[in-house]
Amino acid sequence: MIWRKPYETHVLPNHTFPTVDAVSLVGEAASFPQSGAVVGGFSLEALPSIEIWRRLLPDPPKLLLFDVGPRELELALPKSIHASTFVSTNSESWFTEMMHPDKDQPFAMVQADGQTPLAMVGLATEEALDAFIASLRTASKS
Fold first, then answer.
1. Closest Cα partner for 64 from 34, 86, 43, 45?
2. Which residues are 109's β-sheet partners?
3. Which of 43, 53, 71, 113 has the most neighbouring CB atoms within 10 Å?
């Protein structure tokens, strides 16, 4: 019998996250939360799962990574998404405590008006993706 990690996506509704300062791979500074979808992770090992989220969402999300060097990301990601890929410049300890991620698990957040109506940690399962897109549409209407 082959053992696999379970596909369980943890849902964190209506969380308030402190501001995260970040710099894009093209050098542009930004602060999160921002409106729209944000997908990210805590290691290079999370990139394949982040890419699944990124490709399945109807509009390209911003990518936010913690504990990963910009140079590593420049080599691992296509140049076409460098402007929308951000690396945190402040400590992620508060974030990891709130999200409780495994280092190889991605996170996805819907952000609107400085709030996070929905955050998820884990893979983009069909159920998780449906809930995420519905929350994203609701947030964009308000």
1. 86
2. 38, 119
3. 53
| CB 135, CB 118: distance < 8 Å | yes
- Give the position of tokens 């519905």: 134
On whether the pTM is more than 0.85, the answer is yes
| Tens of pLDDT, residues 92-111 | 566 666 666 677 889 999 99
- In this predicted model, what pLDDT tens digit does every residue of 32-91 receive, in sequence order? 888 899 999 988 999 999 999 999 999 999 999 988 888 999 999 999 999 999 999 876
Contacts of 67 (CB under 8 A, 6+ apart): 42, 43, 88, 92, 103
C-alpha distances in Å from residue 84, one per residue of 11, 14, 16, 63, 130: 24, 24, 22, 6, 23
